[in-house]
Each structure stands twice: as C-alpha cells, then as structure tokens.
Amino acid sequence: MSRPVSRVLTLLELLQAGGVRTVADLAGRLGVAERTVRRYVDHLIDLDVPVESVRGRYGGYRLAPGHRMPPLMLTDDEALAVLLGLVSGRRTGLTAAADAAGETAAAKIRRVLPERLRRRLDAVLDSVAFTAPPAESAAPETAVLLPVADAVRHHRPVAMRYTGGRGGDGERTLYPYGLVAHAGRWYVTGRDLSVGADRTFRLDRVAGVRILPGSFEPPAGPDPAERVLTALATAPYRHAVTVWVQGTAEEIRTRLPGSVAIMGAEAPGPGGVSGGAGAGAARSAPEPETWSRVEMRVERLDWLPGVLASLDRPFAVERPEELRDLVADFAGRLMDSARRTPPHG
After folding, report:
1. Which pLDDT score, from 0 to 100, does residue 294 have?
2. Across the beta sheet with 315-319, what order do the strands follow?
3. What number of other Cβ atoms are within 10 A of residue 156's Cβ?
4. Handedness of CA 5, 110, 82, 203 (dihedral sign)
5. DSSP 64-106
6. 243: helix, coil or strand?
7. Model-level pTM greater than 0.85?
8. In this structure, what DSSP letter does residue 213 have?
9. Helix %, strand %, coil % for the chain, to 5?
10. Kind of pairing between the strands at 290-298 and 197-202
11. Is the distance from CB of 66 to CB of 50 less than 8 angstroms?
C-alpha cells in the first residue's frame, strides 16, 4: 500500500474515533502539512465518505451521517470484539437479525483482515468453548425491532399484529414502555389499549409494526425489566404456589430470580430460643427472625421441593396442600440416600 493511500485510511480511522479533529492535530498525527490534510479529506469525499468541515476557533473535520456506511477501520481489539459479539449473539439467540446477516457480517470482517490478525482471531473462535448449549433462536425481525425501539424512545403508540403462544393472530395497539432482552428472547412491555391493561409481548411473535400519530407519557413505577420479570413470574400456569421462607426479601432474591418468584410481605417468625426454660431464657431470647412470603405460578409442582431445599433456609408451605406431600416424599428420598452404602466395584 502506497504511503498516501495508507495515510488517507489513517485519516479515516482518526475521524471515526468521533468528535471534531483540528487540521493541526490531524497534520501532526499523519506527519504531513496542513495543506496535505485538506487534500486527503478531498480524497475521502470523492469516495463518498461524509466528511464535514466545521468552522470557527475550534473547527476542523468530523464524520457526518451519510447515505451509506463508509469503510470501517478497526483495531485488533475492536475486530476481536465485533467477531466475538457476533458469535455470542448467535449463541444466546439475541442477534436481532436473520442468521444469514450475522454470518455475512462476520465473513466480511474476516475477509478484509490482515492475514496475521485473521489467523489469531480464527484461533480464538476455533478454540473457544461454551458451557451452555446454543439458545433456541427467537430473535425478532429488524423490521420489528427498529420501529418498536423508535416508538419507545419517542413515546409513540404502535399498531402491530401479534400471534399468541396458543395461536390466533390479533391486532394490538400498544403504548410501548421499553424493550427487554431476557433468556435468549426479546420482549416489549407497555399498555395494551386493546384490553386496557399492561401487557408483555415477545417480539419474535410480532409482525406488521406501524408507528401511530400522537404520543404518551410513560407511567412511574417499575422499570421495563422488572415489568417483564413480573409478567413471566405471574404467567397463568396451572398451580398458584405460596410459601414462607426465613429471610428478608433481598436475601431470598439472590436464590429465586424475579422471573420465577414474586416477593411479597415480610413478617416476624416465632422467635425464642430452643432448649431453654424459665424467665432467664425468655429474657435472653433474640429478636424474631424475618420471614418472607414468596409467590410462584408453575405448570408442574414436582421440581419445587428441590428448589426449596436448595435455598438452605427454613420454609413453610401455605398452598397448595399437594406441595406438602411432595416435600415430605423428597425429604424421605434424601434420608434414604444418606443411609445408603455406596456400591463397591
């Protein structure tokens, strides 16, 4: 690559860092005269790179929005970050585009990399291992994500067609409060004017989005992420479960995420000390322990005894009665395993 061409590309890289760069600064970094900097800028403009001249005491050059993306100049660290981002996006199912778009984007970047850097990045991509299996792809279409995001940002209502989990298309009008990415899926939460209530929708089930005239004021209260987690935890599954667990809501939340359980009221436990008697024991009794009410909606109960045991805290089942029997059976199996002698090969 000839030195003038190399310097023109270096100029593009400097401008892509953002902000206004003075002619004197650019000349110093490129090691050329200021008149040469202006000539290099003209070369970029001839290539349809949108370089904008800024007048004034602190004037110079900067990149302006253009009708197409100019060539990107990436450092080694930036190229690695982009490629790993594309790979992790596909693995988690959050790449908000068709699979082909992610593949072609990665291919374009790898194709223009120097051989030295391409070999090093390929070594990383070929050797990296993931501890979790690839998520089921549930990425929304770009034609859905972008207008919904624009409506969220500018507080505009949207009309959309939504297919529910049990089928059936329906037209909805929504005041979108926010976008949330959770567990490999994208969600939009907001006020569904069709039913007059707050709702959460999976974006991969949305089609035909149109931004409508007008605007709305988002309500105070939980942020969009908390709204989505609450909606997931209160989905209308078969069983409504309520248990009391010893500990504060903050302590229990570290074991039961918001998408699984809703933390309710706190109440004091029975208190007292075990093994003591008389007035002396009563006077030395500590303050009662705090217990927290935990509510869950689940389709099956059989996995809950193990989850409750993993909390490693005392708990009491309020409902349903069936869960008490399952906990007792689980405890019996643990006792049998504790007494069992291991096999000798």
Report:
1. 92
2. 262-268, 290-298, 239-246, 315-319
3. 17
4. positive
5. ---SSPPPP---HHHHHHHHHHHHHHHHHT---S-HHHHHHHH
6. strand
7. no
8. S
9. 40, 25, 35
10. unpaired
11. yes
Q: How far is CA 139 from the centre of its chain?
A: 12
pLDDT, tens only, 202-222 = 888 898 899 999 999 988 878
Sign of CA dihedral 39, 42, 47, 51: positive
Q: Over the stretch 288-300, which tens digit does the pLDDT of each residue have?
A: 588 999 998 888 8
- The CA-based diameter of the chain, rounded to the nearest angstrom, is 96
Unique residue bearing structure tokens 């390929």:
122
Owner of token pair 């569904």: 192
CA 3 to each of CA 21, 22, 73, 141: distance values in angstroms, whole numbers, following the listed order: 21, 22, 17, 43
| Token pair belonging to 221 | 């209260």
**In which residue are the tokens 């050329």 written?**
32
> Residue 291, Cβ neighbours under 10 Å: how many?
23
Output the six-digit token pair for 143.
């034609």
339 backbone dihedrals φ, ψ, rounded to 5°: -90, -15
Give the separation between CA 318 and CA 316, rounded to whole angstroms: 6
**Nearest Cα residue to 26 out of 73, 71, 61:** 61
Say if CB 61 and CB 54 are below 8 A apart. yes
Residue 297 backbone phi and psi in degrees, to 5 = -115, 125
- C-alpha 65/C-alpha 50 separation (Å) is 7
Angstrom distance (rounded) from CA 95 to CA 138: 9
Residue 186 to residue 93: CA distance in whole angstroms: 9
